């Protein structure tokens, strides 16, 4: 006889961690630095593996952004952002000022632009991570839908509601531009070539 999963039945709530506790788990070796996990609203979440299309989009965006933005900014591929007291996501790309990256005590606590490339993680990236980035006042957030070959651009964060007030979807025939980083503009088709 198969018994229901205790977590699914709602009998046990997961233990939520604060950011300082999460860092201690890493420091003492409970979580290895190479483990593909991130802290999202107090829960340690396993990151989904990357397929080839996912990795190609990250690589293309990283090369493009690094070339266009120059030395004043740092393009951080899959590196932590310490956001609030209970979240440390590792977005596929985050753009921070060079000053923020070099002066942060642990990891940067803000970003000008965050990009998540999604296939299996699309729902999590739209809802959970969108809420985290909006609450952290990230002014612009892109979700690259690899399967749908489109980019969702979120802007104007509502910190209290934990959501973005504006969202637009760009398809292959359109131009992607960042409102917070002037000059950062490219045809959407180039990401999916």
TrEMBL record:
It comes from Archangium minus. PANTHER family: SLR1083 PROTEIN. Residues 20-189 form the Putative restriction endonuclease domain. The lineage of its organism: Bacteria, Pseudomonadati, Myxococcota, Myxococcia, Myxococcales. The keyword Nucleotide-binding does not apply. It holds the Pfam family Uma2. This is Uma2 family endonuclease. The keyword Hydrolase applies. SUPFAM superfamilies: Restriction endonuclease-like. Keywords: Endonuclease, Hydrolase, Nuclease. One of its GO terms (molecular function) is endonuclease activity.
């Amino acid at each position: 006889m198969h018994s229901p999963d205790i977590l699914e039945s709602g009998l046990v709530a997961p233990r939520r961690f604060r950011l300082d506790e999460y860092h201690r788990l890493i420091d003492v070796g409970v979580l290895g630095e190479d483990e593909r996990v991130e802290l999202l609203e107090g829960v340690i979440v396993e990151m989904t593996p990357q397929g080839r299309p996912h990795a190609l989009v990250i690589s293309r965006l990283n090369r493009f952004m690094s070339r266009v933005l120059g030395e004043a900014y740092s393009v951080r591929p899959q590196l932590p952002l310490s956001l609030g007291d209970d979240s440390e996501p590792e977005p596929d790309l985050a753009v921070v000022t060079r000053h923020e990256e070099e002066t942060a005590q642990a990891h940067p606590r803000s970003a000008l632009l965050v990009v998540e490339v999604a296939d299996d993680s699309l729902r999590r990236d739209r809802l959970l991570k969108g809420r985290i980035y909006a609450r952290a006042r990230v002014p612009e957030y892109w979700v690259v839908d690899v399967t749908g070959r489109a980019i969702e651009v979120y802007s104007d964060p509502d910190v209290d509601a934990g959501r973005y007030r504006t969202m637009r979807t760009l398809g292959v025939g359109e131009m992607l531009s960042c409102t917070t980083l002037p000059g950062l503009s490219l045809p959407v088709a180039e990401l999916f070539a």
